[in-house]
């Protein structure tokens, strides 16, 4: 796409498919910032339960809307008054789904600081890279992973100075005796609490300090006063199309717009103040962040947070104890649930709708899901750079294998390499523009220029438009491997393997697996003939997050290369003809892509 | 045998354990089982079909003395024991199924136990009577705490989950206490019993579990349900057998007959622990493995 892409999409045939009452254009946003939304919504729903965190055995804690507002105010005041952070300072958040998450995240956004969501599964070097790139001033992490956090922060500080550390517990805001029991079990039985060696402040202490500051007259409203839709809200890390980890700059306006678009698109399916949404996907991921955290908060829903959906039986109690009406998930989750006997015996009786993102939803899984639960699961598409949702299947008008139609106020088109729009039925690179598209990558003008042109975001996915405005993903341009919704960039894994003294070079590709998605396979040229596959995997496991570690390691004499020496990964792939169960009616799509 | 004091403590602990088991369940769980009445009927049939037969076969093959043979037979004709629920819980098998089947076999036992004892015991068994009071106690110890536990979980899941945790910890304690109170008090018994008796009391639950598992597999029950069948049918109500014998026999004969349920009660705890641990590991291996989501 060297030529300037066209600025106009002449027709928007999808407008005809919006459900009744949905406007093709987004109404003006009522809030200037996410903090405004939180405060306004909290006042509206006051004593209704906003969040419940539910552990696998049913132990739980809950926070009302009013409490979330008050506690996040206190955390905002702590950041500004005690840590003396300024507007725009970056604060990393690294925790599984728990009650501390909304309090901390809303606090950061109310303080005018920039949220840096960090995958809790990251290894210390991965964390260190991200913290250094974002130049974080503070990090809020979970005590379960304090050892890795300490390792990431050891030695030279990754940012400008040594970041402040705030530690939270999974049982934050639980009843006291329940928290004590869980703590005892964590310490004595499951032994999951590492010794904390890093200097830190515990969350309750930060909230006490923040409340004190508020009592002394600090005004959270004044932090928010300077924020507008153009203000940077979050750096959401992703490999993008190139695999170099970088922060997508999402503004308050991006997040609010995407949240509003989703609510518009759901129409009457989201009843304000009446929904109960199960959040099994991790909130640090942009899909759950925007849809579950922001969208359903805005809708006044009761949000049931599950710290981990693995094993799937962890979802049994939450589904028993709460009248779940909405569920967001990925193909793997829906596929797994319809294979659990307890779920088949008692599918959630109040469920009204389910949405899928992250990876393509298999038609067979969607069908089974609807048979079991009696309500549809509709698929959407997006990517970190678009906050993330670009397209969604309208309820009642979902097409299997399709990513649906563009959201209100969103233009989506397929362009050829020359930058001109291709007619319906022909494949081209999916490009999009809209109020949810990021303003660029954090401090990476070249990377930004490579994907942004005149407000159009190039997704790197190849799609076909139907004549009536539905889109289907047919291929992806990038070599990335999709492991259950996670993007694995071959470059990163190959570099890691090549550092092994017994390895000459390596190529990494994805193999399709029946459960959906792919698994990572490495083809290795070794210099040490004694080197085993297990040793290679162990080497990678020490350095990479688990999902990036090759599941299969093969040895080869050499690798196929292009005349200029570029490894031809394509020739190493097995998926020239994917197995039957992997060839759904639709595409191998990448939606709502993961941070790297 | 164990003394009345130990008996009282064990009963009290068992009540709390069952409260915890109840708190591990919901009415929805019970409902899931009641929707499959076929499984319940299959289990009750298996209880009174296989265990008496296995006991009879063992007594015959091992050529046990008449008193020991009738003792073993009475054990084989007993309904499911409450401990089977505890072991099913630890094996991560189907606890609600186990609880319902225990209730059902205990009720059915009023008729079926004397019938089966008479059928196999023939001349050996003279007017066996099932003491209804003991059946009532067994049932009460099962139903009351379980219902209360379920209700507590329903009312407040935090309290329910705490009860479940306390119940399971006490459950381990219960098993340990059973052994440590039993062995020293019955050392003489253990030393004096012939090897055939040991073989019989160890083989009875093990064979029962094996046959019940295969039986459940033959009827295409799910693997967790097969494990439940195994534990439920192999582990019978030993104390009830003791009560029956104390009521129906007298003198030296009584001492000889009661040896079998006493020894069974000890060894079934050991064998069931091993089987439960094996089931638990197999369960964890067979869990649906899903990758990290996103």
How large is the radius of gyration of chain B?
Answer: 19 Å
Q: How much helix is in the residues of chain B? A: over 70%
Oligomeric status: heterodimer
Our estimate of the beta-strand percent of chain A is: 15-25%
Chain pair sharing the greatest interface: A-B, 48 and 23 residues
Query: Strand pairing plus helix content of chain A: what structural class?
Result: alpha/beta
**How many runs of DSSP E, i.e. beta strands of chain A?**
26
Low-pLDDT windows of residues of chain A:
575-596
Notable traits:
heterodimer, A: 596 residues, alpha/beta, Rossmann fold, GMP Synthetase, Chain A, domain 3, nine-stranded mixed beta sheet, globular, disordered C terminus, B: mainly alpha, 82% helix
Which helices and strands, and how do they pair?
The complex is a heterodimer of chains A (596) and B (294).
Chain A: H1 34-45, E1 49-54, E2 60-64, H2 65-82, E3 90-94, H3 100-110, E4 114-117, H4 124-134, E5 136-142, H5 146-153, E6 164-168, H6 176-189, E7 201-202, H7 203-215, H8 220-225, E8 232-238, E9 246-251, H9 252-266, E10 276-279, H10 286-298, E11 302-305, H11 316-321, E12 326-329, H12 331-337, H13 341-345, E13 353-356, H14 363-373, E14 377-382, E15 389-392, E16 405-406, E17 411-415, E18 427-433, H15 445-451, E19 452-453, E20 456-465, E21 471-476, E22 481-483, E23 486-488, H16 490-498, E24 503-512, E25 518-526, H17 533-543, E26 552-555
Parallel strand pairs in A: 1-11, 3-4, 3-5, 4-8, 5-6, 6-7, 10-11, 10-12, 12-13, 13-14, 25-26
Antiparallel strand pairs in A: 1-2, 8-9, 14-15, 15-16, 17-18, 18-20, 19-20, 20-21, 22-23, 24-25
Helix pairs in contact in A: 1-2, 1-3, 2-3, 2-7, 4-5, 9-10
Chain B: H1 4-23, H2 27-34, H3 37-61, H4 66-76, H5 82-90, H6 95-121, H7 132-155, H8 157-185, H9 187-192, H10 195-218, H11 223-234, H12 238-248, H13 251-286
């Amino acid at each position: 796409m060297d030529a300037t892409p066209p600025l106009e999409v002449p027709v928007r045939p999808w407008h005809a498919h919006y459900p009744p009452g949905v406007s093709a254009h987004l109404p003006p946003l009522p809030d200037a910032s996410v903090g405004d939304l939180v405060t306004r919504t909290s006042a509206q729903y006051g004593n209704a339960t906003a969040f419940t965190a539910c552990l696998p055995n049913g132990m739980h804690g809950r926070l009302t809307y009013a409490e979330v507002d008050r506690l996040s105010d206190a955390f905002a005041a702590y950041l500004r008054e005690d840590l003396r952070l300024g507007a725009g300072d970056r604060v990393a958040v690294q925790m599984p789904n728990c009650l501390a998450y909304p309090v901390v995240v809303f606090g950061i956004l109310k303080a005018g600081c920039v949220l840096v969501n960090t995958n809790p599964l990251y290894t210390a070097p991965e964390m260190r890279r991200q913290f250094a790139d974002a130049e974080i001033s503070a990090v809020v992490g979970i005590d379960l992973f304090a050892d890795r956090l300490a390792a990431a922060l050891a030695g030279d500080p990754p940012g400008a100075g040594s970041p402040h550390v705030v530690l939270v517990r999974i049982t934050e805001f639980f009843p006291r005796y329940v928290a004590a029991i869980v703590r005892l079990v964590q310490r004595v039985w499951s032994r999951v609490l590492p010794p904390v060696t890093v200097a830190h402040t515990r969350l309750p202490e930060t909230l006490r300090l923040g409340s004190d500051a508020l009592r002394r007259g600090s005004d959270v409203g004044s932090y928010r006063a300077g924020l507008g839709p153009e203000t940077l809200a979050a750096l959401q890390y992703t490999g993008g199309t190139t695999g170099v980890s970088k922060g997508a700059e999402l503004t308050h306006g991006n997040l609010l717009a995407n949240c509003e678009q989703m609510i518009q698109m759901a129409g009457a399916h989201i009843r304000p103040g009446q929904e109960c949404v199960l959040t099994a996907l991790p909130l640090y991921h942009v899909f759950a962040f925007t849809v579950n955290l922001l969208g359903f908060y805005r809708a006044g829903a009761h949000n049931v947070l599950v710290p981990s959906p693995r094993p799937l039986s962890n979802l049994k109690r939450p589904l028993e104890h709460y009248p779940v009406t909405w569920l967001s998930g990925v193909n793997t989750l829906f596929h797994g649930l319809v294979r659990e006997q307890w779920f088949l015996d008692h599918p959630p009786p109040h469920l009204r709708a389910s949405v899928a993102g992250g990876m393509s939803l298999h038609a067979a899984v969607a069908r089974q899901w609807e048979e079991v639960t009696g309500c549809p699961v509709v698929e959407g598409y997006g990517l970190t750079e678009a906050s993330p949702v670009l397209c969604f299947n309208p309820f009642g008008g979902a097409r299997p294998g399709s990513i649906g139609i563009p959201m209100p106020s969103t233009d989506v088109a397929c362009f050829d390499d020359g930058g001109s729009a291709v007619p319906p039925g022909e494949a081209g690179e999916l490009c999009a523009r809209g109020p949810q598209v990021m303003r660029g990558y954090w401090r990476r003008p070249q990377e930004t220029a490579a994907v942004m042109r005149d407000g159009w975001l190039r997704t790197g996915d190849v799609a076909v438009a139907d004549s009536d405005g539905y889109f289907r993903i047919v291929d992806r341009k990038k070599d990335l491997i999709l492991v259950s919704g996670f993007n694995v960039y071959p470059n990163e894994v190959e570099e890691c393997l090549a550092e092994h003294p017994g390895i000459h070079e390596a190529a990494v590709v994805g193999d399709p697996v029946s459960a959906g998605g792919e698994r990572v396979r490495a083809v290795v040229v070794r210099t040490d003939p004694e080197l085993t596959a297990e040793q290679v995997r162990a080497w990678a496991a020490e350095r990479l997050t688990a999902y990036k570690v090759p599941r299969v390691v093969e040895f080869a004499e050499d690798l196929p290369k292009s005349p200029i020496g570029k490894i031809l990964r394509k020739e190493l792939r097995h998926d020239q003809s994917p197995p039957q169960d992997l060839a759904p009616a639709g595409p191998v799509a990448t939606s709502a892509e993961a941070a790297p | 045998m164990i003394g009345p004091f130990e008996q009282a403590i064990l009963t009290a602990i068992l009540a709390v354990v069952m409260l915890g088991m109840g708190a591990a369940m919901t009415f929805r769980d019970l409902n899931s089982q009641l929707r499959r009445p076929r499984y319940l009927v299959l289990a009750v049939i298996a209880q009174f079909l296989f265990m008496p037969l296995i006991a009879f076969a063992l007594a015959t093959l091992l050529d046990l003395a008449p008193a020991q043979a009738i003792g073993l037979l009475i054990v084989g004709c007993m309904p499911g024991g409450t401990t089977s629920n505890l072991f099913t819980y630890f094996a991560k098998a189907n606890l609600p199924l186990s609880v319902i089947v225990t209730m059902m076999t205990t009720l059915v036992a009023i008729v079926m136990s004397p019938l089966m004892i008479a059928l196999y015991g023939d001349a050996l068994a003279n007017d066996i009577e099932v003491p209804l009071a003991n059946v009532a106690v067994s049932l009460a110890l099962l139903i009351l705490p379980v219902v209360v536990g379920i209700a507590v979980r329903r009312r407040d899941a935090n309290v329910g989950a705490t009860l479940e945790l306390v119940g399971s910890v006490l459950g381990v304690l219960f098993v340990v206490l059973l052994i440590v109170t039993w062995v020293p008090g019955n050392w003489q018994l253990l030393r004096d019993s012939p090897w055939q008796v040991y073989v019989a009391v160890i083989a009875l639950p093990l064979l029962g579990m094996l046959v019940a598992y295969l039986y459940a597999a033959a009827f295409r029950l799910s693997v967790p349900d097969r494990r439940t069948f195994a534990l439920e049918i192999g582990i019978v109500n030993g104390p009830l057998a003791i009560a029956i014998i104390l009521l129906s026999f007298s003198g030296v004969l009584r001492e000889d007959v009661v040896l079998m349920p006493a020894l069974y009660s000890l060894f079934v705890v050991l064998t069931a622990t091993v089987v439960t641990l094996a089931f638990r590991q197999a369960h964890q291996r067979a869990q649906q493995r899903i990758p990290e989501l996103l």
